[in-house]
Amino acid sequence: MLAHGRAAEAERVVEAIETEVGRRHTLAPVVEPEPAGPTGRASVRALFRGALARRTIMLMLVWTFLTTSYYGFASFAPTLLHDHGFTVTASVGYSAFTTLGAVPGALLAWPVADRFGLRGPGWPCSASCSRPAASPTA
To answer: Angle at Cα 103 formed by Cα 101 and Cα 108, nearest 5°?
Structure first.
């Protein structure tokens, strides 16, 4: 309701629910949390403790595999292209062009990702770009 500008109606609905639950159960008083103050610097060890430990390790693994796979592709692509009839010069050139194009590509994708977030045009763009790659060729 709030998303559709019906704040007063949403407030009435929540109050009705609270009243009904209050009649059936004893409710604990609502305690407002104190606002968090500025935090100091955290150590790197804090990333490997508590709830952040799993996230940190998972992120490290993902980035390690991502970097390894990208390096593997960039290293293997000229060989693959040469085996499919391209000259060595052309295959290395295409591989270099692909590698160098990653930087401006990421910089161009950055504002789009910031603007649309996770619900943006990522899926349609990915589908339209991968369709030609998946089509059978003679």
So the answer is: 95
3-state secondary structure the chain: CHHHCCHHHHHHHHHHHHHHHHHHCCCCCCCCCCCCCCCCCCCHHHHHCCHHHHHHHHHHHHHHHHHHHHHHHHHHHHHHHHHCCCCHHHHHHHHHHHHHHHHHHHHHHHHHHHHHHHHCCHHHHHHHHHHHHHCCCC
What averages of pLDDT result for each successive group of 10 residues across the chain (138 residues)?
86 90 81 78 87 92 91 88 91 88 85 74 65 56
**Centroid of chain to Cα 57:** 17
Would residue 106 be called left, alpha or beta, if left means φ above 0 and alpha means ψ between -120 and 50 degrees?
A: alpha
Amino acid letter, residue 73:
F
